[in-house]
Amino acid sequence: MNLSKSLEDYLECIYLIMLEHDVVRLKTVAKEMKVSAPSALGAVNNLKKEGLVRHKKYYNIELTEKGEEFAKEIFLKHAVIYRFLNEILGLDSEKADKEACQLEHHLSDETTDRFVKFVRYLKSCPQCQSRGFKSFHKYYNDTLADQNKTKQSTKTDSLSNFDIGSFGVIKKITGAPEIRKQIIAKGILPKTEVQLIDISKDEATLKFQEFNINLSAFLCEYIIVEKII
């Protein structure tokens, strides 16, 4: 069945309320979905047209057999993705739930089935339980820490202010059009790595893509580089 993401969310919401309270009222659906009662009623009427719910004015909402089966499928996708994101990838519960809500609408039945089996396999594997998850979480946290250190140790400045021997990545080329043309004509472009080999009052030598390039020292003022310290 091809339902919109919004209607799938409503159907799943009705299913979860039914599991918890048995009785599903329109105002409860509106509250859970954080919408007005008229908006919730419009969605329920659309689900009714699809044969997924039964509802009369002033009466409770009921899932049809077809609606309950489809709601279970949606909930299963959500639960499997949530477990994978939370228990295996280590996302916090709130973020894992939010991400699962986004992903559940785009997985095919085959992909969902593979997710289910993969999660069950990992959870039933003693070696994965004792080493795999914790090792991955440690690896991720260590990598994140290294990335943060790298970000903290970067410095952006004109190439003329760098120390001889320093490496960096060109962020941008500034100056008047004539100046930029002179620099670009040397093959010096943004997002490429450069090393300052030597610089004097008149001339600078750069190592750029394994080649040494000489250019006027004053042009280095207009080459903005991010240096990794």
TrEMBL record:
Cellular compartment(s): Cytoplasm
Domain HTH dtxR-type intervals: 3-64
Checking Pfam families in the record gives: Fe_dep_repr_C (PF02742), Fe_dep_repress (PF01325), FeoA (PF04023)
What does the entry list under GO cellular component?
Answer: cytoplasm
Question: Which terms are listed as keywords in the entry?
Answer: DNA-binding, Iron, Transcription, Transcription regulation
Subunit and partners: Homodimer.
Name the family: Belongs to the DtxR/MntR family.
| Name recorded for this polypeptide | HTH dtxR-type domain-containing protein
Tell me what organism the protein belongs to. Muiribacterium halophilum
What lineage, starting at the top, does this entry show?
Bacteria, Candidatus Muiribacteriota, Candidatus Muiribacteriia, Candidatus Muiribacteriales, Candidatus Muiribacteriaceae
